[in-house]
């Protein structure tokens, strides 16, 4: 069974770009998906490498994106209890409200998956 998801929506906050101890870039951001007349579905998105760097450089809160990737369940601890959450690991991001002057190469970014 394939695990592939494609969503379109707007960023809920600016991407948070970080680097691992090994130097690998990774970014996290949230995307609100849905129609204007409905409550949005929120997706936590994570991406890596050049894709993470491009997302951090060319997007910001409110920008419209198309995200492709796969869903993974992550486990973490909070208040002494083990919890789980779902994340969309992006393999590609298309910047849908791309603004001229930012560089045409930023219109679509694809990256390697890690995690």
| Overall domain count | 1
| CATH class descriptor | Mainly Beta
Please estimate the helix content: under 10%
Unreliable residue runs? 103-107
* CATH level-4 homologous superfamily: Nucleic acid-binding proteins
How many runs of DSSP E, i.e. beta strands? 7
According to CATH, what is the topology? OB fold (Dihydrolipoamide Acetyltransferase, E2P)
Radius of gyration: 14 Å
Description:
With 115 residues, the chain is mainly beta. It has a single domain, classed as OB fold (Dihydrolipoamide Acetyltransferase, E2P). Helix content is 9%, strand content 53%. It has one helix and seven strands; from the N terminus they run ββββαβββ. A five-stranded mixed beta barrel has the order 1-3-4-6-5. The longest helix has 10 residues. The relative contact order is 0.25. About 4% of the residues have low confidence.
Question: Could you list some keywords that capture this structure?
Answer:
single chain; OB fold (Dihydrolipoamide Acetyltransferase, E2P); 5-stranded mixed beta barrel; 115 residues; 1 helix; globular; 53% strand
Write the layout of secondary structure elements.
Layout: E1 5-11, E2 16-19, E3 25-33, E4 41-48, H1 49-58, E5 64-78, E6 81-95, E7 108-110
Parallel strand pairs: 4-6
Antiparallel strand pairs: 1-3, 1-5, 2-3, 3-4, 5-6, 6-7
In brief, what are we looking at here?
This protein has one helix spanning 49-58, and strands at 5-11, 16-19, 25-33, 41-48, 64-78, 81-95, 108-110.
């Amino acid at each position: 069974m394939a695990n592939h998801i494609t969503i379109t929506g707007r960023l809920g906050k600016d991407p948070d770009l970080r680097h691992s101890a090994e130097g690998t870039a990774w970014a996290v951001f949230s995307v609100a998906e849905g129609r204007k007349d409905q409550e949005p579905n929120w997706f936590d998105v994570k991406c890596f490498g050049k894709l993470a760097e491009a997302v951090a450089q060319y997007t910001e809160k409110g920008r419209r994106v198309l995200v492709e990737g796969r869903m993974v369940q992550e486990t973490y601890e909070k208040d002494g209890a083990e919890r789980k959450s779902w994340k969309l690991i992006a393999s590609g991001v298309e910047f849908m409200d791309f603004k001229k002057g930012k560089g045409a190469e930023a219109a679509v970014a694809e990256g390697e998956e890690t995690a």
